[in-house]
Amino acid sequence: MTYWVYILASSRHGTVYVGVTNSLERRVAEHKEKTFSGFTAKYGVDRLVWYMGFGEVTEAIACEKRLKRWRRDWKVNLIETDNPHWHDLYIEMMAVPVSVKPVSMGPGQPLPRLPG
Considering only CA atoms, which of 21, 61, 101 is closest in space to residue 29? Predict the structure, then answer.
């Protein structure tokens, strides 16, 4: 099973949200549909702008916690390294089911060595 750490945004350089899930396709769809009330629904944060896959849930959770502590400009740099125009990667993901994508595909490159 693959566990996913992801970053959503409301728009380019808008509000960002970091999350973790075992089903990226389902979880992003829930954000888009505003299935649950909360931060992402309140601020319209539903554009998938970055994600990374992990084979172990503990690694994914550790990455999510580390990213949540990062300064905003570090998160923006991480997003713009692979997705400079902040395109919604969910559209791309739906064209090729995430279950057949290799973990290293797309924006899921190793995190840069930044403090935090």
Answer: 21
Q: Map out the domains of the chain as residue ranges.
A: 3-100
Tokens, residue 18: 């970091």
Fold assignment, 3-100: GIY-YIG endonuclease (3.40.1440)
Q: pTM value?
A: 0.83
Rounded to whole angstroms, the Cα distance separating 16 from 27 reads 15
Instruction: Give residue-wise pLDDT tens across range 19-57.
Output: 999 999 999 999 999 998 899 999 999 999 999 999 999
The answer to whether residues 22 and 3 touch, using CB atoms and an 8 Å cutoff, is: yes
Q: What residue has token string 């992402």?
A: 40
The Cα 67–Cα 57 span in angstroms is 15
